[in-house]
Amino acid sequence: RRFAFATKSKSVATMAAEYTGNLKHQLEILFDESLRLTVPDETGVEIKVAASQPGIPGDYQCNNAMSLWSIIKGKGTQFRGPPAVGQALLNNLPTSEMVESCSVAGPGFVNVVLSSNWMAKSIENMLIDGIDTWAPTLPVKRAVVDFSSPNIAKEMHVGHLRSTIIGDTLARMLEYSKVEVLRRNHVGDWGTQFGMLIEYLFEEFPDTDSVTETAIGDLQSFYKKSKRKFDDDPDFKEKAQKAVVRLQGGDPIYRKAWAKICEISRTEFATVYQRLRVELEEKGESFYNPYIPQVIEELNSKGLIEESEGARVIFLEGFKIPLMVVKSDGGFNYASTDLTALWYRLNEEKAEWIIYLTDVGQQPHFHMFFKAARKAGWLPDSDKTYPRVDHVGFGLVMGDDRKRFRTRAAADVVRLVDLLDEAKTRSKTALVERGKDKEWTPEELDQTAEAVGYGAVKYADLKNNRSTNYTFNFDQMLSDKGNTAVYLLYAHARICSIIRKSGKDIDELKKTGNVALDHPEERALGLHLLRFAETVEEACNNLLPNVLCQYLYDLSERFTTFYSIHQVNGSPEEASRLLLCEATAIVMRKCFHLLGITPVYKI
Ligand code: ARG
């Protein structure tokens, strides 16, 4: 990121204020100014500031000296090697209350020690102005997150569950960063399978109008039965093929039957979304269908489309097979729809960042149509410049048997709703074993069981690097030890109870009290709190929710260390320490919120 000193009229202080809460950027602004003073002629250099590795003195490090040296050494510079460049960067650093001291190490690394007073003040400010002042600033206004996206009448499987959970978190992180997010459910509601589904519906329920969800029962088995008939009965097959044509031609009776089938699927999907508290707006494949011809025409006029074995395709460098955009029978496919949806999102919806979530198996599809879009000039060549597209691929969900996750009833896939219900039931059992049914009202018990159960499923998925496969294991995810949602939710509840037990009015304390970070454990906790904004920003930029999970886990570890050494209630430092507890609880809750997990306050 460049802080473009083209705007010399803005003072360093004003610029830094725009990044309240983001330590890294505030330091980058200072170093950028120093860079300008150190090497006035070098305008294209990007400042690199990073949190220091453990064991290195200082909190942050500026790593520019070496690369800067290699740029200037041939140009008759006054400096004698990287350490001198580092020293100059240090000398020219504008004075700032955030910096306590600096030193140069090795080949010109500038180590920065932050001022503990300034850190304490920043935490006080957050306590008064709210955690939203720590939200990252991203260079986009509107984004599309294309996630969940199951297929009508087919099963919504654990892959879709992963897509839903990861997609929701990414959407939440962008929303927190003040990006308007269009949460798109790109359901598979178009295609040849609808011919057989509609025809089968007509045969089974001649009176289509009065067909209810209960009459059809399970859409998946309905799909299977119609598929069997399609494969076994040539007459039926022919009718089904005609049905597709009539549907696509807009015949109202066929459209109505199609709408009915979609409606039933939608109700089924909604039960999963409702449990997960995930909001999505459906714009299925059918939505883009009317726009496909004009988009194909645009690509054609740009000379991208060629004929190949009767189909129309786009040849792309680096791919062995071309991208088919019109099938040999003239029909459109997954790729034609995705190219058109991309066109629509860029041009009609004015999205600057479009993010797709599916399993990694679909990666070639995405990379191919992204490439076609670049070729058409819709997207810049570099993939980190905006408008930007990303395929966020994720690994498989495995069972304990190391095979793809399935239910006990071998071949049958897990019904997602049952899976979530089981997580809740198990967490309720654990609470009852701990006697909570006697302490709490039935509502409290139920709400906690739900927050913990669903939270556990989500966290178990999000904490892994998404590209790896992960093993679905109830016992592991519901354990109260280790890096689990249960452990973290309990840690948060414990902090809340420390504050409650103090008997102090915490809101009053926020106005009058001061935070002090005098002891190493207090300071370490404070520093970790202050790294929240840059962590969320990193998680957004790299589309990695596990970065935020790791941050949250580390935060609870820092807190535990602090709390195991320092007394809070009844100590002379009580006010300051209670404020640190409160700040930790606030940041933890924000993390839970971004991960789609409901916090609990009592355990
Ligand atoms: N319906 C697809 C599936 O279940 C996922 C769609 C993902 N989104 C997209 N724009 N292709 O595999």
TrEMBL record:
GO term, biological process aspect, one: reproductive structure development
Reaction(s) catalysed by this chain's protein: tRNA(Arg) + L-arginine + ATP = L-arginyl-tRNA(Arg) + AMP + diphosphate
InterPro entries given in the database record: aa-tRNA-synth_I_CS, Arg-tRNA-ligase, Arg-tRNA-synth_N, Arg-tRNA-synth_N_sf, ArgRS_core, DALR_anticod-bd, Rossmann-like_a/b/a_fold, tRNAsynth_Ia_anticodon-bd
Molecular function per GO: arginine-tRNA ligase activity; ATP binding
Keyword Ligase: yes
Gene Ontology, cellular component aspect: cytoplasm
One Pfam family in the UniProt entry: tRNA-synt_1d
Enzyme Commission code: 6.1.1.19
Residue ranges constituting the Arginyl tRNA synthetase N-terminal domain according to the UniProt record: 25-114
PANTHER family from the UniProt entry: ARGININE--TRNA LIGASE, ARGINYL-TRNA SYNTHETASE
Function according to Swiss-Prot or TrEMBL: Forms part of a macromolecular complex that catalyzes the attachment of specific amino acids to cognate tRNAs during protein synthesis.
Name under which the protein is recorded: arginine--tRNA ligase
